[in-house]
Amino acid sequence: MTFAALNTVFADTAAPRRDAGLDVPGVRMAFAAGEEIYAQDEEADLIYRVIEGSVRTTRLGSDGRRQIGDFYYPGDVFGLETGAEHRFSAEALCDCQISVTRRAVLSRQGDDGFRVERMIWAATARELQRTQEHLLLLRRRTACEKVASFLLDLADRFGGETTTLPMGRQDMADYLGLTIETVSRMVTQLQADGLVEFSGNRRFRIRSRSGLSRLIVA
Amino acid sequence: MTFAALNTVFADTAAPRRDAGLDVPGVRMAFAAGEEIYAQDEEADLIYRVIEGSVRTTRLGSDGRRQIGDFYYPGDVFGLETGAEHRFSAEALCDCQISVTRRAVLSRQGDDGFRVERMIWAATARELQRTQEHLLLLRRRTACEKVASFLLDLADRFGGETTTLPMGRQDMADYLGLTIETVSRMVTQLQADGLVEFSGNRRFRIRSRSGLSRLIVA
DNA sequence: CGTTTCATTGAGTGCGATCAAGCCGTGTGG
DNA sequence: CCACACGGCTTGATCGCACTCAATGAAACG
C-alpha cells in the first residue's frame, strides 16, 4: 500500500458510514430475531455486512453487566476484530439478511489487494471513531441528554419522517449506561415536553429538533 | 500487504502496548510540562512517540466539558488520527522527550513499506482496543471501582514497587468521568481501607492487589 | 382467557455533584 | 527567617438525580 492509498483510507473515514466496496462475493444468510450471529471468543475469520435488519454486538463485563459494543444497520460492516477472536458477540435484533464473507477469500481476490485492505482498515478506523463518540455520549451529564442524543442520532441515520427503534428499552439502557426504568422515564418526559412523539413504543417522530439539540448542548 | 502480513498486524495488537518498530529517523523534541504538542483541528501529518515523560490527549466536548482521550507513556505512539485533522489535542504532562516523524517520510522509506503501514495500523487497532476498555471502565458502577481500577492499571503498566502518578487529580477526574472531589475522597478511602498507600499525593504503592481486584470485579 | 414478555409508573434511598471552607506545599519578596 | 499569596488537594454539608425495589399496564402469543 502506498502512502497515497493510505491517505485515501483516512479520507474515507469521513465519508458516510455505509461501507461501499464490499461488493465481493459473499454468502447471503438469514438470521431470525434474537439469533446469535457469532459468539464472544469465537474465531474471527468471517466478515459480515448488514443487508437488511439490525444487529447489536455485546460483551459481558467482568462484573457480569452487559456492555453493548454498537448497533449496525443496513450497509454497515461488522465482525472485524483487532485480534484473532471476537471480543464481542453479535445478535440479530430482528429478522436479518446478512452478507458473510471469509477473510481469506477476500485476500485471494488478488486483482486489487489494496481495495480489500483499505476497506478493512477503513472499517477499523470508523469503528474507533464511533467508539470515541460513544464514549463522549456516556459522559454526558444527565440521562435526559443521553436519551435525546440517542434518538436524534437514530433519526438522523434513517432520515425518514418517523423512525422505528430497532431495539428494546433494555438495549437502549445498556448502550447508554442507564437502567431500563430511567430510559422509560426520559422517553416519557421528552414526549411530555413535546420534543418527540411516540406511537407505540418503537415508532417515534422528532417534533422539535432544535429543542432536542438545545438539551444536548446545554 | 498480503493477508499473511495482515494477520500479523492483528496478532501484534495482543502484544504489550509499547510500539516497537518505529525506529525510523525521527526528530527528538523536548516539551515542557503543560506545553501543547499539537492542537485540536490541526493538520495531522506527524506521528509522535513518547521517549520519556507522559502525554495526555484532550478534546472539548460540545458541552464545554473536557474529555481525556488517553494518557501515553514511554514507548507509546500517539497522534495517529483516522482523519486528516487531529480530533484531540496533545499536551505534555511533565517535561517530555518526544520523537516526531513526518508521515510522508515514513512512506518514502521504500525498503519495507509493509512495516510502516503495519505499524500505523497496529497503532490504530490498539487505540480502538484501549478506547473500548476505557468505555468499559466508565460504565463501572461506583466511583470507587473506577479509581481502584485506574490505579491498578497504572501500577501494572509501570510495574515498580511504588508508582508515580504522572497526572493531577483533575486529569484523573476527567478521565474517569468524576469530579476532582470524588476522586480525592475515593483515594482517601482506599487508603483508609489499607488497599493502597500514598506518600505525597503523587506517589503510591499497592498494598493489597487482591483487595483492589475484589473491589473491581464485585 | 391466561400466560409471558416488555414497558411504564411510583416511592424511597444512596451516591456523587455541588457549593464552600480549610489544608498544605511551593514560591516570592521583604 | 517569616509573611504572604497561590495552586492543588482534601474535607465537610447539602442536594438532586438516577438506581432500586415493587407494582401496574399493555401488547403478543398460545
Structural class of chain A: alpha+beta
List the quaternary state of the chains: homodimer
- Residue share in helices of chain A? 25-40%
Q: Uncertain runs of chain A with pLDDT below 50, 5 residues or more? A: 1-16
Number of helices of chain A: 7
Strand order of the largest sheet of chain A: 1-8-3-6
Q: What coarse outline of chain A follows from CA principal-axis ratios?
A: globular
Query: Greatest chain-chain interface?
Result: A-B, 48 and 48 residues
Beta strands of chain A, count:
11
Q: From N to C, what is the helix and strand string of chain A?
A: HEEEEEEEEHHHEHHEEH
Distance between the termini of chain A: 44 Å
* Radius of gyration of chain A from CA coordinates: 18 Å
Percentage of residues in strands of chain A: 15-25%
* Biggest pleated-sheet summary of chain A: 4 strands, antiparallel
- Compute the average pLDDT of chain A: 84
Keywords:
218 residues; alpha+beta; four-stranded antiparallel sheet; 40% helix; globular; DNA-binding
Plain-language structure description:
The structure is a homodimer of 218-residue chains. The first copy, chain A, has 218 residues and is α+β, with helices and mostly antiparallel strands. Helix content of chain A is 40%, strand content 24%. Chain A has helices at residues 3-12, 103-107, 113-138, 143-158, 169-176, 180-192, 209-217, and strands at 27-31, 36-38, 46-52, 55-60, 66-72, 77-78, 89-92, 96-102, 162-164, 196-199, 203-206. In chain A, strands 1-8-3-6 form a four-stranded antiparallel beta sheet. A four-stranded antiparallel beta sheet of chain A has the order 2-7-4-5. In chain A, α1 (3-12) crosses α3 (113-138) and α5 (169-176) crosses α6 (180-192). The first copy, chain A, is globular and about 55 Å long. Chain A starts with a helix and ends with a helix. At the A-B interface, α1, α2 and α3 of A face α1, α2 and α3 of B.
